[in-house]
Amino acid sequence: MLTVSEMLLPLIAVVLIVAPLALVCSGAMKKYSPKTRLMAQICLFTGTFLVMMIVGVGRIAVMAEGTEAAAVDSSRGLGFLAAAIAVGCSCISAGWAVAKSAPAALGAISENSDNFGRAIIFVALGEGCAIYGLLIAILILNAL
Questions:
Q1: How many helices (H) and strands (E) are present in the chain, helices listed first?
Q2: C-alpha–C-alpha distance, residues 141 and 144, integer Å
Q3: Which residue, 91, 93, 17, 79, is CA-closest to 48?
Q4: pLDDT digits over 13-25, tens only?
Q5: Any idea which of 18-27, 68-77, 93-102 has the lowest mean pLDDT?
Q6: In 3-state terms, what secondary structure has residue 90?
Q7: In this structure, are residues 60 and 96 in contact, taking their beta carbons and an 8 Å threshold?
Q8: Distance from C-alpha of 53 to C-alpha of 56, rounded to nearest angstrom
Q9: CB–CB of 43/64 below 8 Å?
């Protein structure tokens, strides 16, 4: 049977992560810059993640005292977490790189169509970051 904390903590986590997005969609945060909104979202997500980790550490410690298999499950969980962080961070950086380089590439192409080959390279380099993160995550998952 689930305890009250096991039922409420995931609900609180989802609310803390989705609430800023609801504020942005409703138009209540139009006065803030996109950079401020992004930082607020990252801070809320990080805080929620840390709270969930702190609450989960007690359970991991209790399981590890009982059997050695629990410690193995804990290390597998951290491996999955490492793979998720690798993909997440690389995709965020790739999105940022493409957002910065694609408009400049389109501007260069619109002025002179001969610049297509040079301009597309910068967009492809940004996408390469996401591919490398996915590759690292696959290597981590294969090691588990």
A1: 4, 0
A2: 5
A3: 17
A4: 777 777 777 776 7
A5: 68-77
A6: helix
A7: no
A8: 5
A9: no
